[in-house]
From TrEMBL:
<feature type="domain" description="HD">
    <location>
        <begin position="32"/>
        <end position="108"/>
    </location>
</feature>
<dbReference type="InterPro" id="IPR017670">
    <property type="entry name" value="Phosphonate_degrad-assoc"/>
</dbReference>
<dbReference type="InterPro" id="IPR006674">
    <property type="entry name" value="HD_domain"/>
</dbReference>
<dbReference type="InterPro" id="IPR052567">
    <property type="entry name" value="OP_Dioxygenase"/>
</dbReference>
<dbReference type="Pfam" id="PF01966">
    <property type="entry name" value="HD"/>
</dbReference>
<protein>
    <submittedName>
        <fullName>Phosphonate degradation HD-domain oxygenase</fullName>
    </submittedName>
</protein>
Amino acid sequence: MPQPATAPLDVLADLFAGEGAAEYFGEEVTQAEHMLQTAALAEATGAAPALVAAALLHDVGHFGTLTAAQGGLSGDVLMAGTDNQHSRTGAAWLAQWFGPEVTEPVRLHVAAKRYLCAVEPGYFGRLSEASVHTLRVQGGPMDSSQAIAFEAGPYAADAVRLRRWDEQAKDPAFASPPFAHYLPLLAGLLSTPSAAAG
């Protein structure tokens, strides 16, 4: 029996309230606070709804219970030194309901960190201690050929914008809107069965 269209939003709301309340790998915010702050920063710049959604959902791949079907592993594995491929597994899970304008920036946000560390002087110095650690685990800064290939991708610019908000979204004093604030935006981006087939 098909799930109702609201099912993924209910799952996400439960995850933000549940697993999302856990610490965010040594940062001063929880995982949900980090994701909500990233979305709030995107929204404040007037980003398109799909990019706001990508900002909100960029780290869903750290929710191991959500992405297990895609081979997902928890963020604890990443901090222990094994790349949990959270950008890939999160994007794969989201692709069941959202189009590439949401899922591709999610899939590319780790690559965008590697890209920015390679091409932008001083970017590495803005990384938190946890981001420096995960950068090493995720392959380190790109080499020149990787950077050129990344730049050529159709969603590279969105992924870079998302990455910049991601780095800023670790402020314990930042008051972001709750997950419910984004429900209408997310509902408007859900793929319809006919759109998914086309």
